[in-house]
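User: Structure with flavin-adenine dinucleotide, tokens only please.
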Amino acid sequence: MNIIVLVKQTFDTEEKIVVEQGTVNEDGVKFVINPYDEYAVEQAIQIRDDAGGKVTVVSVGPERAAEALRTALAMGADEAVLIHDDRIGHDEQAVAAALHAFIAQEQYDIILGGNFSVDNGAGQVAVRLAKMLGIPHTSSITKLDIAAGKAVVHRDAEGDLEVVELPLPALFTAQQGLNEPRYPSLQGIMKAKKKPFRELSLDDLNLDVGAVAARTARTELQLPPARQAGKIISGEPAAQAQELFRLLRTEAKVI
Ligand SMILES: Cc1cc2nc3c(=O)[nH]c(=O)nc-3n(C[C@H](O)[C@H](O)[C@H](O)COP(=O)(O)OP(=O)(O)OC[C@H]3O[C@@H](n4cnc5c(N)ncnc54)[C@H](O)[C@@H]3O)c2cc1C
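Assistant:
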């Protein structure tokens, strides 16, 4: 079973976001594997351990994204590919096109990605890639069973559960609950240093700059307004309810 996992390196959600001149300041910031992609890596390792085969992790991003790929190798992935080229545009279409150029040349049974990335929140790259490859996909999965060339998945349909059966090769995006990602062991970290790690540019992929041009542009980026202090209503419950009603009507103007 050949499994490709899409790994995006994202801002650690614990970090404080500072916006300067329309961009997020990255100085001294800790970067991690997108948490949803950790579920994808874990699932791929489990399938490989059961069925044999190979797990390849691939990322499109700056050189620092290599750290995320090395973490995935230390978890147990077999090889890594970093597609790194400043000419690749910064939107979901451009990233999906770059991933497509690499993956279309590979042998694969399963592609796993994250449900969405915690920085952009788009949930588009993986499903655009499935469309470009012409393969079926199911997003937001919480269970994946593979048997006889088919996959049966549970899909989180915004609170409801869908059970979907589809033929392989297919692409899935991981939702929280799919598994419990392992931490890299010391032995895993040492082994990762010797695993194959390829760096590819547009020239290696025979890709024209136009194919990976962004089709969207961000016009503005700003932090949400700071939260106002809360208000505590005291007194007997009946008086509190009356005061709450008055405030909702006269100040918040929501009723
Ligand atoms: C269930 C759901 C409901 C939503 N509802 C709303 C709504 O009501 N209103 C609204 O405005 N928005 C909504 N959104 C958000 C909207 O869809 C997002 O703004 C948008 O689609 C952003 O994509 P992304 O950055 O999250 O994901 P992507 O960036 O597309 O990431 C998805 C996955 O693709 C792979 N990937 C991404 N980048 C790379 C890379 N560079 N290299 C390798 N792999 C990569 C990773 O596996 C990643 O986990 C919703 C999203 C979801 C998932």
